[in-house]
Amino acid sequence: MHRHGSYGRYLKPKGGGKFPMQRYLCLPCGHTVSVLPTNRLPYRPLEVERLQGGFDAQAEVGTGLDPPPEPIEAGCLQRAWSRFLARVKVLQDAFGQILPAELHTAQQLWKELRRGVGSAESMLRFLARHCKRSLLGDYACWRPAS
Questions:
Q1: Could you give the angle at which helices 48-58 and 106-116 cross, rounded to 10 degrees?
Q2: Residues 114, 132: one domain?
Q3: Do 126 and 71 fall into the same domain?
Q4: Residues 9 and 62 in one domain
Q5: Cβ neighbours of residue 121 under 8 Å, at least 6 residues apart?
Q6: pLDDT at residue number 146
Q7: Running DSSP on this structure, what letter comes out for residue 128?
Q8: What is the pLDDT of residues 43-57, one digit of tens each?
Q9: Range of the domain at 120
Q10: d(CA 81, CA 99)
Q11: How many CA atoms lie within 13 A of 136 on its CB side?
């Protein structure tokens, strides 16, 4: 892989500043790859710590976000939680025996993930390494090139 430039990605949900996303080129196949920093989510302008705080609040784990989210960030967090709600079964299957067999709600799943896996960053790392997926979606970037 060779470094192949970068592009700007928003730091916060309401825009403003950007950070550089590094791109790399695979010379044999011609595909380019972007590498996310560990504190960022694929396709979402949220930091992992803010997502974790928002999900903790939804599942009634801890005290929630400090400072509280502004309206645009609150909307991003709500959309992320809705996506998480739709992925309960997929995530239960992905984490397998790390979780208890009987989990019926997204709140229970999040509580058990926090207890068994730890931080949202650890969850994302586990899913990427072992399952080739992410917390909120199975993206084309995880599929092998054809």
A1: 130
A2: yes
A3: yes
A4: no
A5: 38, 39, 48, 52
A6: 54
A7: I
A8: 888 999 999 999 999
A9: 39-142
A10: 19
A11: 20
